[in-house]
Amino acid sequence: MGDIVSISLKKQRARENNMKHFLRVLTQFFVFLYCKWLWRTLKFVTRKVTGRCELQRICYGNKPGARRTLQIESSLKFSKSELLQSAVSVRPDSVEKVIDDIMTLKKIKPATNPQLGISLQASLLQIVGYRGLLGEVGNLRREPYDCENPEHEHMLLKLWKTLCPNAPLTGRITKQWCEIGFQGSDPKTDFRGMGLLGLHNLLYFAEHDKATALQMLHDSLQPRHSKLSKVEWEKTTVAKAIGYSFAIVGINITDLAYSLLVSGALKTHLYNVAPEMPSLMHFQQTFCYLMQEFHKFWVEQDPCDIMEFNCIRNKFHKRILKQLSNPNMALCPHFAASDLLLVNL
Predict the structure, then answer these.
(1) In whole angstroms, how far apart are CA 175 and each of 221, 245, 278?
(2) How many CA atoms lie within 13 A of 88 on its CB side?
(3) CA distance 251 to 182
(4) Largest CA-CA distance found in the chain, in angstroms, rounded
(5) What is the rounded CA–CA span in Å between residue 317 and residue 344?
(6) What's the pLDDT at 34?
(7) For residue 143, how far is the Cα from the chain centroid?
(8) How far, rounded to the nearest angstrom, does the alpha carbon of residue 138 sit from its chain's CA centroid?
(9) CB burial class (10 A; 0-12, 13-18, 19+) of residue 178?
């Protein structure tokens, strides 16, 4: 009797699994039909009714910025035309020719649609510029810090002089580096994860927003949840501070900014702040903003010690991703020293 019940249950499960498989295949079939037939039919009908192709509708229906450029990028990528598909990966100096080719393909007369060419050029430059920036930032990240390279050493020493102008280094390898947030006596070991990109970002922040960088460095060294007097605190070592290591956090936030860039999440911000091609400067300004916002977020979270860093960083990352999900959002539209605010365009 038990065997019969067991066999019956197995058959029932098999029928359920077959039904689930059938429904899954049926769903995929309808999605295929939509993508290959209904979607293209809707585009065809819309063009006949409006007299405009999809690119025209996007350009004329959206203001300059991320919303328009993201829609243009998607339209080009998923087009059945190889010319349109390849448009997102051309060189910057080929953009004008590609736009002429697109206008010819779509049978659009430039004389009667002058604004279309201008809008397409701005968006295409943003798209190819983002790809170029991704490569430039990636190259800096992959280039290791070389203490035998005079340029690398000059940048590192410049970072120290900017943050500690009144405290000369006693040597190239010294515990003094811990005072600006490095882990040991030789900072080169801390750049392994982000390569030269981490050093470039830290130096840019220290030079272009020096007042904020110095304030953050000062705050990071202060004891928290402590009733020590100033005299008692000055007798302790930096390692006892319940804050964070400024330089190490800078390298970590560089990693966060890089991940946003690679994932494409940063397109929203960069397409809104860069009228044409996003540059390394735009990325570094974004880093400065993230540093300041993380500092405020760290204070708000009120951690007991540095062991909570990863948890707080993850929360901060999710907050930024949520903000960037809004195509009208720019993190720092006008970078001006300490005046960085989250602005909804």
Answers:
(1) 15, 14, 38
(2) 18
(3) 10
(4) 90
(5) 19
(6) 61
(7) 20
(8) 12
(9) middle
Residue 204 token pair: 């840019």
Average pLDDT, the chain: 84
pLDDT band at residue 40, thresholds of 50, 70 and 90? low
Provide the token pair at 225.
């949840």
Rounded Cα gap, residues 9 and 12, in angstroms:
5
Higher per-residue pLDDT: 178 or 32: 178
Strands (E), the chain: 329-330, 343-344
Mean pLDDT of 148-154: 96
Q: Whole-angstrom Cα distance, residue 91 to residue 181?
A: 40
Segment 5-37, tens digit of pLDDT: 566 666 677 777 777 777 777 777 776 656 555
Q: Tell me how far apart the alpha carbons of residues 204 and 58 are, in angstroms, rounded to a whole number.
A: 37
What is the DSSP code (8-state) at residue 175? G
Contact of 147 with 138, CB cutoff 8 Å: no
pTM of structure? 0.79
CB 327 within 8 A of CB 345: no
